[in-house]
Amino acid sequence: MYIIFVPLCIVSTLPQVYIYSSGSRLAQRLIFGKTNYGDLRKYLSGFFDTTVGNKKETQSYIEITESLGVDKPSDILFLTDVFQEAVAAKAAGLEVMISIRPGNAPLPDDHSFKTITAFTEI
């Protein structure tokens, strides 16, 4: 599963979109370069993989925030379908939404994350 990582950009009317995946950056570029909808890389600002750290560890999101030069982590919106990743990103100060998809593990009843089923809900 490819996780969409969306820093909200104040200087631009469009957000910058980054991918953070357990797949390598090269694999991500290949996958997004050849889709049923053509080459989607032109819509992406960059790629992160687990060389920045495990996706379930808070430090990984701190590293990403710092590498992007973002002063306020809450200016970054992180979308994921994995609860543990959401917890780690939130602990790093990011805004987080969980994407509900078929096959997702159930969420704890007492979670506090906003959930979405489509990007139009962002």
- The number of distinct β-strands equals 6
Q: Can you tell me the CATH superfamily?
A: HAD superfamily/HAD-like
H/E series:
EEHEHEHEE
At the fold tier of CATH, the topology name is Rossmann fold
Q: Proportion of β residues?
A: 15-25%
Which blocks of ≥5 consecutive residues have pLDDT under 50? 1-11
Number of domains: 1
Distance between the termini: 19 Å
Q: What fraction, in percent, of the residue positions are helical?
A: 10-25%
The best one-word shape is globular
Rg of Cα set: 14 Å
Order of strands across the biggest sheet? Answer: 3-2-1-4-5-6
- The whole-number mean of residue pLDDT values reads 88
Quaternary state reads: single chain
CATH architecture level-2 label: 3-Layer(aba) Sandwich
**CATH C-level:** Alpha Beta
Q: What's the structural blueprint in terms of helices and strands?
A:
Layout lengths: L2 E5 L10 E3 L4 H9 L12 E3 L9 H11 L7 E5 L2 H9 L3 E5 L14 E3 L6
Parallel strand pairs: 2-3, 4-5, 5-6
Antiparallel strand pairs: 1-2, 1-4
Helix pairs in contact: 2-3
What does it look like?
With about 120 residues, this protein is of the alpha/beta class. It has a single domain, classed as 3-Layer(aba) Sandwich (Rossmann fold), CATH 3.40.50. The chain contains 3 helices and 6 strands, in the order ββαβαβαββ. The protein has helices at about 25-35, 60-70, 85-90; strands at about 5, 20, 45-50, 75-80, 95-100, 115. It has a 6-stranded mixed β-sheet, sandwiched between helices. β4 (about 75-80), α3 and β5 (about 95-100) form a beta-alpha-beta unit. One of its GO terms (molecular function) is acireductone synthase activity. It comes from Salix dunnii. This is Enolase-phosphatase E1.
